[in-house]
Amino acid sequence: MSMSMSAPWNSPTPEDLLRAVQAVGVSDERLLQALRATPRAAFVPTGRESHAYQDVPIPIGHAQVTTQPSLSATMIQGLDLSGHEHVLEIGTGLGFQTALLARLAADVVTVEMWPEISRQAGRNLARQGIRNVELRIGDGSGGVPDRAPYDAVIVSAAFPEVPAPLAGQLRRGGRLVQPIGPGGREKVMSFLRTATGLQRTRVLTPARFVRLHGQYGFPER
Q1: Cβ(175)–Cβ(198) under 8 Å?
Q2: Which site in 24, 50, 85, 174 is 20 to 30 Å from 75, CA atoms measured?
Q3: Among 209, 215, 191, 183, which residue's Cα sits nearest to residue 71?
Q4: Is residue 66 a contact partner of residue 58, using CB atoms and an 8 Å limit?
């Protein structure tokens, strides 16, 4: 349903956001359908709703921002989800990417460092009727070992390498997507878990991400 009749003049619509996502090469039809079913306006801070359908990051406090939707979709597409996967997400934010993953996989375990951000994400997901998500608060660099192994892992923060616990918690044959770099200048990489460890499969896109902090990431500020 178009929002153009009730939206302010020149305000981007959900269809505008969908076109921006397709313009960067996202073509997976299940993912595009998940985007159509997930209103980004329900996952932005109060007062930022007019920016929800712009393809831009939005500040959410604690020097954190939401991932740009086209970038998030590119990363999710790199996981090659088919619908049965047990997924680990590092960096819940306000839950928009989590919601997309939940619509595309069997279930999602998601970790957020900041308790109030995680609680808001939980409220946002509940209002959308999304129940197949387990929210955790803490250091995402160590993963969630008590729920491992995972079929797919997505990391929404940058580090020069994949933290060993995340690689170790990925099932053989599973995929991991992470921005690799120092924070602020990354290559988002897709990896495949093989019998001998992680194998880089391709560069998905250049990007800029906040740093991954924690025991297996950058030291805490």
Answers
A1: no
A2: 50
A3: 209
A4: yes
- State the sign of the Cα–Cα–Cα–Cα dihedral 93, 175, 203, 30: negative
Pairing of strands 150-155, 170-180: parallel
Name residue, tokens 């073509």: 27
Q: How many CB atoms are closer than 10 A to CB 1?
A: 6
Q: Which one, of 216, 58, 43, 46, lies nearest residue 138 by Cα?
A: 216
Q: Is the pTM of this model over 0.90?
A: yes
- DSSP labels for 112-179? ES-HHHHHHHHHHHHHTT--SEEEEES-GGG--GGG--EEEEEE-SBBSS--HHHHHTEEEEEEEEEE
The amino acid that residue 6 corresponds to is: S
Q: Report how far residue 73's alpha carbon sits from residue 71's, in angstroms, rounded to the nearest whole number.
A: 5
